Task: inverse folding
């Protein structure tokens, strides 16, 4: 049985150790990024859920309120100007609906991009691997 000197195995074992460390670091990095993505996903779900809940409640309550105001005005002016009262009520409801739609569109356009922190960290990782990022 011939034994090879230890110095011949040293480069291979150092390469193996380096590859294992690289793989371990890569897996840890991926794990951290997925954990961040999961946290952001949970926050985004909560934010959207709250928005939808409050938006639906507001639409229902305001809709009923405006409907009752329109009926009140129509009943109050029934004998003299019922068509005018119905027209004003319809105009007010349509104007409020357009206002709400424009406000919702503006709110959605100003919302932060989902998963922005994850994308930023991935960009930092790419920069670090390319040798031009922060340490």
Result:
């Amino acid at each position: 049985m011939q034994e090879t000197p230890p110095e011949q195995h040293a480069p291979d074992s150092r390469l193996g150790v380096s590859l294992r460390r690289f793989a371990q670091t890569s897996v840890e990095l991926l794990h951290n990024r997925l954990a961040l993505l999961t946290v952001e996903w949970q926050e985004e779900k909560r934010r959207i859920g709250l928005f939808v809940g409050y938006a639906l409640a507001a639409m229902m309550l305001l809709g009923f309120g405006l409907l009752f105001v329109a009926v009140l005005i129509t009943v109050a002016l029934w004998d003299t100007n019922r068509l005018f009262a119905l027209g004003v009520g319809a105009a007010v409801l349509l104007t409020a609906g357009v206002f709400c739609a424009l406000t919702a569109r503006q709110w959605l356009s100003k919302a932060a991009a989902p998963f922005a922190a994850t994308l930023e960290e991935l960009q930092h990782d790419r920069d670090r691997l390319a040798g031009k990022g922060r340490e």
The mean pLDDT is 79. The chain has one domain: 7-130.
